[in-house]
């Protein structure tokens, strides 16, 4: 009896696994069509400077208009794109679209920085610097207004290549931000070794700021460290006024989160900026 029960459990497990596998394979096929068919769109989430009380940046976040499934968030496809290598094509499209948009904003005297997420595979592709250089040149971007975001774990995958690339980007003037700071499996050695311009505190430390003594101490320590190292700092996932107040009182530079706005389509983003500017 025990044996047959176990056998059944394995069967159930296998069919669940098989379904997940089939689903991933389908997404991968759909992604190929999505790249060709331009089914992606960048949404922009505002970043607020807590001292200036003004919006000074945007993070580009990819959305996929899937022909059957509707709007898909990156959680549904970025890992699959990464594993299959399709991320290189998607990432190139993202970079180009973000730079094109930044150029438009700059031409309209909208002075905000553009944050673009890059994945490990894209970061270490060997062509990222050339691509960034070409875009900055072609779109006549102020290099400091472009900031690439990568997680600490991904950055540390290949320390030698990372060292070269980080230095090249820094020489060009393009910023490098550590995304989801505090959640990776890495030492903080890279803060010594690489020219990092910004840390983004992961939202898991922000969400329980008002109830967790530990999170408060960790966030205070990160703020003190970033300030001592002269690294800019953004708190991710700010959802309440209390969280903002804590961050402002501890002199955290910037905040991003649903308290201000989710990621918006480009036209909504412009309206958002206009409305906020009118209030101040
Ligand atoms: P991320 O870079 O850490 O981006 C922040 C994520 O948190 C976004 O999710 C954003 O919508 C969400 N978020 C922002 N404020 C709040 C808040 O107050 N509360 C909560 N609960 N969530 C908030 P999204 O857009 O689903 O993106 C998820 C992740 O996908 C991103 O995390 C990033 O790692 C990745 N991603 C997004 N766009 C791209 C892209 O173009 N290329 C690559 N390689 N990865 C991307
Ligand atoms: Mg990010
Ligand atoms: Mg991330
Ligand atoms: Mg993040």
UniProtKB/TrEMBL annotation:
Signal peptide: none annotated. Coiled coil: none annotated. Residues 24-277 form the EAL domain. This is EAL domain-containing protein. The chain holds residues 445 to 724 of 724 of the full protein.
């Amino acid at each position: 009896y025990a044996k047959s029960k176990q056998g059944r459990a394995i069967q159930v497990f296998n069919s669940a696994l098989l379904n997940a596998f089939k689903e991933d394979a389908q997404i991968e096929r759909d992604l190929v069509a999505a790249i060709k068919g331009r089914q992606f769109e960048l949404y922009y989430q505002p970043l607020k400077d807590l001292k200036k009380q003004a919006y000074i940046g945007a993070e580009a976040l990819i959305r996929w208009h899937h022909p059957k499934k509707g709007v898909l968030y990156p959680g549904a496809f970025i890992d699959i794109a990464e594993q299959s290598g399709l991320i290189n094509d998607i990432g190139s499209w993202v970079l180009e679209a973000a730079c094109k948009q930044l150029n438009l904003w700059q031409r309209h005297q909208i002075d905000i920085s553009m944050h673009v997420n890059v994945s490990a595979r894209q970061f270490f592709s060997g062509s990222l610097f050339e691509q960034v250089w070409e875009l900055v040149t072609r779109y006549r971007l102020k290099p400091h207004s472009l900031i690439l975001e990568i997680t600490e774990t991904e950055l540390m995958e290949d320390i030698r290549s990372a060292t070269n690339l980080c230095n090249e980007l820094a020489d060009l003037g393009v910023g490098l931000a550590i995304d989801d700071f505090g959640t990776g499996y890495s030492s903080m050695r890279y803060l010594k070794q690489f020219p990092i311009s910004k840390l983004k505190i992961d939202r898991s430390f922000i969400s329980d700021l008002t109830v967790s003594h530990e999170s408060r101490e960790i966030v205070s320590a990160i703020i003190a460290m970033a300030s001592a190292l002269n690294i800019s700092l953004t708190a991710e996932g700010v959802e309440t006024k209390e969280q903002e107040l804590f961050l402002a009182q501890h002199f955290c530079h910037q905040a991003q989160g649903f308290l201000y706005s989710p990621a918006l389509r480009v036209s909504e983003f412009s309206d958002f900026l206009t409305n906020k500017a009118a209030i101040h």
